[in-house]
Specification:
Layout: E1 4-15, E2 18-29, E3 33-38, H1 44-51, E4 57-64, E5 67-68, H2 74-79, E6 82-85, H3 97-104, H4 116-125, H5 127-131, H6 142-154, E7 160-164, H7 172-187, E8 191-195, H8 199-205, E9 208-213, E10 216-222, H9 223-227, H10 230-237
Parallel strand pairs: 3-8, 3-9, 6-7, 7-8
Antiparallel strand pairs: 1-2, 1-4, 4-5, 9-10
Helix pairs in contact: 3-6
């Protein structure tokens, strides 16, 4: 059996008249954290949205846990154990933190039915979620909203967590907290696919990496190897570290 939980083979995506993905090949190994890097406009967010079925692949194949999910609607993909945190976080601002969490806990009819042990674990990862439990989510800071978005994604057990730019706009202290939380999630057995622009964030967390440019994956391999090769960083990402 393949060690890859998620694979994309030759995936093309059109949005209206625009051809955004040009044959994406991507492998996400089970139990690892895979970084998806690239310049702005490279196709990273489109890749995540295509995996989730929010935009349909016009060609190619997407496989999750050995099953073809290319043509499945988004709710069916999610029900297989895939959670997606978009760049805009998708927080319901007028609802409390508790109500946001309850919406994501599909098996619970009220907050008391959310798995108590799992909730305690989430509170340990993100103390702000417990602190602001009864506060309107719209009143939270950017970092606290990001913590809530990830907490919603993991309030039920997931096999794969897909997150788009979790460190964007966050203070360094919050970023360190987020890194610790993702490391704990990975240690718990969750497979993570993470789009990130912060290279220092990426190299601290990533096991494997794929770099996109112009709608294709142009490099894949070990995150450690990329982090140690400044010439490769410069050519792929335009970075001078």
């Amino acid at each position: 059996m393949s060690n890859d939980l998620l694979t994309l083979e030759g995936v093309h995506t059109h949005i209206g008249a625009y051809h955004i993905l040009h044959g994406v090949d991507l492998r996400v190994p089970r139990g690892q954290l895979t970084m998806l890097l690239g310049r702005n406009g490279a196709g990273k967010t489109t890749t995540l949205r295509t995996i989730m079925g929010l935009w349909k692949a016009s060609r190619g194949r997407i496989t999750f846990a050995g099953q073809d999910i290319t043509a499945l609607p988004t709710p069916q993909i999610a029900s297989r154990g895939v959670a997606y945190v978009p760049e805009n976080m998708g927080i319901f601002a007028d609802l409390t933190v508790r109500e946001n969490m309850l919406l994501a806990a599909r098996a619970a009819k009220n907050a008391s039915q959310i798995d108590e042990q799992r909730l305690k674990w989430i509170f340990q990862l993100f103390p702000a979620v417990e602190k602001f439990w009864n506060h309107p989510a719209g009143k939270l800071s950017g970092g606290q909203k990001q913590m809530l978005a990830v907490s919603r994604a993991i309030v039920e057990p997931r096999e794969l967590l897909i997150i788009d730019e979790p460190s964007k706009g966050l203070a360094p202290a919050i970023i360190n907290n987020m890194i610790d939380a993702f490391a704990q999630l990975k240690a718990s057995g969750v497979t993570i696919l993470l789009v990130e622009q912060n290279f220092n964030f990426a190299k601290r967390l990533g096991d494997t990496v794929a770099v996109m440019d112009n709608g294709q994956v142009v490099h894949s391999g070990s995150m450690k190897a990329l982090a140690e090769d400044e010439g490769l960083q410069q050519s792929l990402l335009g970075l001078a570290l």
